[in-house]
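sanity check both lines:
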Amino acid sequence: MDYEAIVVGGGFAGMTAARDLHDAGHSVLVLEARDRLGGRTWYKPFRGSGKTLEFGGTWVAPRWQPNIGAEIERYAAELIESPVPSTFAWSLGGELTTGANPIPVEEWLAFESAIRAIDNAAARIRFGEAPLDQRGLEDLDVPFDSWLRGLELPPKTLDFLMAWAGFFFGAPCSEVSGLHILSWVAGFENSAVAWYVAVSQKLAEGTAGLINTLAEDSAADIRLGAPVAGIETTDEGAAVTTRDGERYAARVAVLATPINTWHRLSSGSALGAARVAMAQERMAGHATKIWALVRNLRGNFYGVGWDTKIKWLATEYNTPEGDLLVGFGTSPEELDVNDGDAIAAAVREFLPEADVVAVDAHDWNADEFSQGTWMAYRPGQVMRHASAIGRPEGRLVVAGSDVASGWAGWIDGAIESGHRAARAAGEVLSIRALA
């Protein structure tokens, strides 16, 4: 065998698995399709500027996310806070308002009732203890908009909750399982309010700093620009073939690539029935993330809208050239991130007087190595597939934020899955060694 383990994919899941396997004394090859590590994180300069920004996954919440918290502590990574907003805009219920509170007084009681219902439903979930397809949660694995409408909410409360869930999952609420959305509330200690205020920390040196540290610590043989075409497994080991025809053999393989790319992988029976089905169905995340350099703002901005093309827009950095705002939408059909004029117009839906100087984005939905954004289970997918897609199949182990038991869709989930994959791969290797 060329190596004891081959890891396909150099994002946080793959590099965590590689590092853990190295720590256990195994030789590892990492094959990464892109010319960089990081997967669906990408820390790179804003177009035409020396300012480096996160174009993919960004925020961490170590108080609630133990896996990323442990990596931050292990490598003494510094965190910084997003700016505290002082100006606001809310496009809800067909009206744009600019007060500090998105919910009008006449809807406060209904909003509080909705938050209690969300928190109570989330409390039924055993978050992180097991995959989400837990017995008794079938009634939550439905379109989240349908679940919300069952609460009979007034218009601005409904729009705010739809926008909040929509931009966090990168898809309209009709396309996302309520169970997956409520699981994040469970992760924030069954508190939707804690979720609202918790997501404010990011890595001072960017995700690239941590992924490069992981890579160095892994001592793996890393091949960039090596997209994989197929994985074959036998009782003795695994063989991985790249698109340019290179073939590598190992005793076990770890597949750490996004679910939406699995359908392009030639694998015979190695993937297993559940993963083949999930590859055909695809997960729902197809967010649009944009950056805009804006002048003429009066303080740090924060805005949410449901009838706007950007569902969430906020100031992330203040620079001498202007303020850098980051925004998220839920549909590439609604906002083309390659159209600078369209992005500027979307920003002005919240800030009509803003001077949008420059914009930048990466189209993750058109990116062949992601074909979507972060994990968002479709209605019904949790109960059909959540356990099975992460289960090892012989000599093939799967990792990735998409298959995390806890924070699926976050960097923490990627690291969790990398730890689990390394343990499973190590068991395969130890059984072989004993034989």
The mean pLDDT is 96. The first helix runs from residue 12 to 23. The radius of gyration is 22 Å.
